[in-house]
Amino acid sequence: MKTDIEIAQETRMLPIKEVAAGYGISEDDLELYGKYKAKITSELWERIQGKPDGKLVLVTAINPTPAGEGKTTTSIGLAQSLTKAGKTTMLALREPSLGPCFGIKGGAAGGGYAQVVPMEDLNLHFTGDFHAITTANNLLAALLDNHIQQGNALGIDTRQILWKRCLDMNDRALRNIVVGLGAKADGVVREDHFVITVASEIMAILCLANDMEDLKERLGRIIVAYNFAGEPVTANDLNAVGAMAALLKDALKPNLIQTLEHTGALVHGGPFANIAHGCNSVMATRTALKLAEITVTEAGFGADLGAEKFFDIKCRKAGLKPDAVVLVATVRALKYNGGVPKDSLSEENLEALKKGIVNLEKHIENIQKYHVPVVVTLNSFLTDTQAEYEFIRNFCEERGCEFALSEVWAKGGDGGMELAEKVIKTLETKESHFAPLYEDSLGIAEKIETIAKEIYGAGKVTYSPAAKKAIAKITEMGFGSCQVCMAKTQYSLSDDQTKLGCPEGFDLTVRDVYVSAGAGFVVALTGAIMTMPGLPKKPAADNIDVDGSGKITGLF
To answer: Is residue 94 flagged as an active site residue?
Structure first.
């Protein structure tokens, strides 16, 4: 059996200018990065603003197993299938992070015959967007420390510095560090921290910005620290905005690549959904909506995380109104939620399916709270059995859900025609009445509790003393109307990854809260979630290599 990377390497890609031409994009509207990658120019972005939007389809999922269940594969396969069905379709996806690429999941460009290419480029350095974000983040950190070293005219309290350095790598040793050791000229000694780049506020800002002017305004609002009077100090106060924006000038532009079947894919930005807002850039999604009849986008991890943030944060800020949701499930993830160990998921187990399918039921109910039509699809794996398929199909149909089996991993666009037909039927016959879950006028704690109880199924929310103090401070500063971005484990509806299925009535613990003023949301940290992940005992990096001709192996 061929690996994903072997399939990708054997596929003949079209020059990206040919793919672009299929969407009415001229070569002058592209900034080429070789033959197969390009950025969309600012001129094209401005020129298409008056065009009507196509239909927007969100792909989300149930709670996954630690290995992931193919949501991106389904998104890509669906786009290929919709193209085969005669619909001009474009993908809007996130860029992969090097953290999971070298960690537990490996690459993230889809799988089998439903991939975006060039997959090696996408999974590694791509067009340099993540490098630009990392550099802009760390420039701000350097300017902050330099300001303190050079006399500290702003009166920054070094015990109340909020801004962290970042790196696009899982590196647990950098979570908590000490900087400024050495001679007096080497800086002020203080505790510091790193987050992974995809959790940086600059990543969120880039993905929510509408243009350079909006980007600069958001960068300026970043709160980096408090002064001795307890007042916020911003990136604007440090005169950092111009230089940061210069570093992000090209990163702001969406990247165009293609699927294995040459459907266009705008891949741009990559915030994690368990510790950030989990959606690709607003500019990529809005560009795709102007260029295609149907845009297929996705939100990270399960619907309790990515979809909730897509609906309550991204859609609200960008004025997006999704027309349909595709909810991805897999036999093995349902069995995992039914208590089956990861190493036994290949065995037929209808009893575990009956226990675990309540997770799917909860996600269906949650999406319906946003008043958007739902199509459930089962991402097929070779180890699935017909009896398992029929049980899940009957479960969905008994609840009035459209259902389709997806075989896009094995068959590409041909394997997703049933799903494409159900999506087209839904778009043509069912009207979306999208509305967010909560009103902005609610307080921060009320928003947290609404998400926790309505989406997760919690009985109550408890707050640490630090979280209570932070909420009071953030509200006093005028950020009480911001949306909430929950940082929570992806493996459970609760904040405890061992509580599988559909836990109810549990206590959700919020241990800290902080404001991302530039992004315009408040982050609530729950459970043991980390903003700098670590590598597993056997990282995916162990299997990656490159030969003398430059051919990469083991990436996925």
So the answer is: yes
In the predicted model, what is the mean pLDDT of the chain? 94
What are 32's strand-pairing partners?
38
- Rounded CA-CA distance 52/518 in Å is 29
> What does 75-109 look like in DSSP terms, one character per residue?
HHHHHHHHHHTT--EEEEEPPPPHHHHHTTS---S
What pLDDT is attached to residue 67?
Answer: 64
Catalytic residue among 60, 65, 72, 73: 73
How far apart (Å, rounded) are the C-alpha atoms in residues 482 and 546?
46
Q: Dihedral sign, CA of 529, 531, 534, 540?
A: positive
H helix or E strand, kind and range, residue 6: helix 4-10
pLDDT digits (tens, 9 = 90+) for 228-248: 999 999 999 999 999 999 999
- Using CA atoms, how far apart are residues 231 and 32, in angstroms rounded to an integer? 45
Residue 360 has phi, psi (to 5 degrees) of -60, -45
* Active-site entry in 37, 39, 55, 71: 71
Q: Give yes or no: 381 in active site.
A: yes
The pLDDT tens digits for 162-207 are 999 999 999 999 999 999 999 999 999 999 999 999 999 999 999 9
The angle, 0 to 180 degrees and rounded to 10, between the axes of the packed helices 129-149 and 201-208 is: 130
288: left (phi over 0), alpha (psi -120 to 50) or beta: alpha
Whether residue 365 contacts residue 99, with contact meaning beta carbons closer than 8 Å, is answered with no
Whether 71 is catalytic: yes
Q: Is 524 known to be catalytic?
A: no
